[in-house]
Amino acid sequence: MRPGQRGNRGEAQRLGPRLDQIVDPNHPLAKLAQRIDWSFIEQRLDAVYRDGPGQPPLPTRLMAGLAILKPMRNLSDEKLCESWLENPYYQLFCGEAFFRHSLPLDRSSMTRWRQRMGEEKLTVLLQESLHLATRTGATKPADFTRVIVDTTVQPKAVAFPTDARRLHRAREGLVKLARKHGVALRQSYKRLGKSALIRHQRHAHARQFQRANRALRTLRTYLGRVMRDIGRKIGGDASLRACFAQSLALAHRVHEQRYRQRGPKIYSLHAPEVACIAKGKAHRPYEFGVKVSLATPLHRCRGGQFVAHVAALPGNPYDGHTLATVLPALTRQTGTSPIRVIADDGYRGHKVPPAQGSCVYTSGQKRGVTARIKRELRRRPAVEPVIGHLKEDHRMGRNYLAGRAGDAANAVLAAVGYNFRLLLVWLAGLAWLLRTLVRSAGMDAPKARCVT
Q1: Which residues constitute the domain of residue 39?
Q2: Has residue 59 been placed in a domain?
Q3: CB–CB of 246/165 below 8 Å?
Q4: Which residues share a beta bridge with 241?
């Protein structure tokens, strides 16, 4: 069922003034709520719903407003729900006409809404942020003809992976699942496995690597025994095989992988999509998460350094091979084709169609580089502060959303929160400038003289 039209519901039954009569109309959040084209967002997001029987979904204005506020204020779902109950500006931003003293949704409704929208629909919020920036004069379409493209790592909320801990957790997960389904194991190795894990950690800390490797082999042996025992016990039961299939597959991969093994590996049992990415940082040689592509204008817009495009790139692809998909998506996002793309030397050997290959310039490139292009190449580090703000202030620094769909959604929502935060500052500056002009015009007006 589609969400119903949201009006001033309950106006006849409610007592008290309306929210727009309580709050300051010049507050940046109130001005932002007035300028966003909510009808465009509702039209695009409501396309995922179908007409039919069932409980009607929550209003799109409410859920889209919460999806914007969460990364813009760097709040978790729980903190956002608490703040929404206390803050009348948040309720006004989400389309409420009167102040509510109870939540109209459950916290888990936000998770289900994000999963239902997906990356494609959440990109509508990023498009609206760029359209609003153009309408308010914070940027203009010509700013997106010259862009900087770079990649960064969006870390996943996982513990630092070690072979010993993964083997221990895999065995614990199988034992717990066997107990849940009534499969009697010959031995669970609960006490012995914990003791072997502690020995490995102590020996590794003391740099006694031969003893540490001996404890690691013991942990691998315990996992293999539990796997084979479960395989024998569930061999003739198809329903049990289906219940254990995913856990046994992950445990088998953990059991078989080795140190310095090339190719995909399991770094976290609850997030098997995590990849190990090395970006050459001295303070953080390896990061565990997903690679994210980011595009921002080459020159700073009037309203700030907006994010023009963002996308998660699962599988840790080579940076140069991602431009073939990033540039067409950037054109669809902004409505303008880039005439010049600046990238670092990690994009050398890029796979870009011939029609667009001539507009890509990488750091250190010599052929075909004019004096103007040299000056533009020196602007490439302008994307680094944008990445820093996305990670520190807008929830890209640690992703708590599950799966690859969660990686893509978190990257898009972080860019949405960053752009709308810039628009808040821009609208506040416009309001201050308008008040200053009105005040100066009133002071410069000639005063009437009294004639006696």
Answers
A1: 19-119
A2: yes
A3: no
A4: none
CA distance 421 to 413: 12
**CA-based torsion, 336, 339, 342, 347: positive or negative:** positive
Coil/strand/helix, residue 353 = coil
Asked if 298 and 332 sit in the same domain, the reply is: yes
> 């969006």: which residue's tokens?
154
What's the pTM?
0.86
Q: In the numeric block, which tokens belong to residue 3?
A: 């969400």
Note whether 110 and 153 are same-domain residues. Answer: no
Question: What is the β-pairing status of strands 340-343 and 146-155?
Answer: parallel
Domain count within the chain:
3
Q: How far apart are CA 144 and CA 397, in angstroms?
A: 26
Amino acid in position 66: L
Residue 342: which H helix or E strand, with range? Answer: strand 340-343
Residue 232 to residues 23, 144, 185, 378, Cα–Cα distance (Å):
68, 61, 10, 64
> pLDDT truncated to tens, each residue of the chain (452 aa)?
667 665 555 454 455 678 888 888 888 899 999 999 999 998 898 888 887 777 788 888 999 999 999 999 999 999 999 999 999 999 999 988 888 888 888 889 999 999 999 899 999 999 999 999 999 988 999 899 999 999 999 999 999 999 999 999 999 999 999 999 999 999 999 999 999 999 999 999 999 999 999 999 999 999 999 999 999 988 888 899 999 999 999 999 999 998 888 888 899 999 999 998 888 888 888 899 999 999 999 999 998 899 999 999 998 888 888 888 888 899 888 888 888 888 988 888 777 766 665 688 888 888 888 888 889 889 999 999 999 999 999 999 999 999 899 999 999 999 999 999 999 998 887 766 666 766 666 666 565 554 54
Contact 269, 173 (CB under 8 A): yes
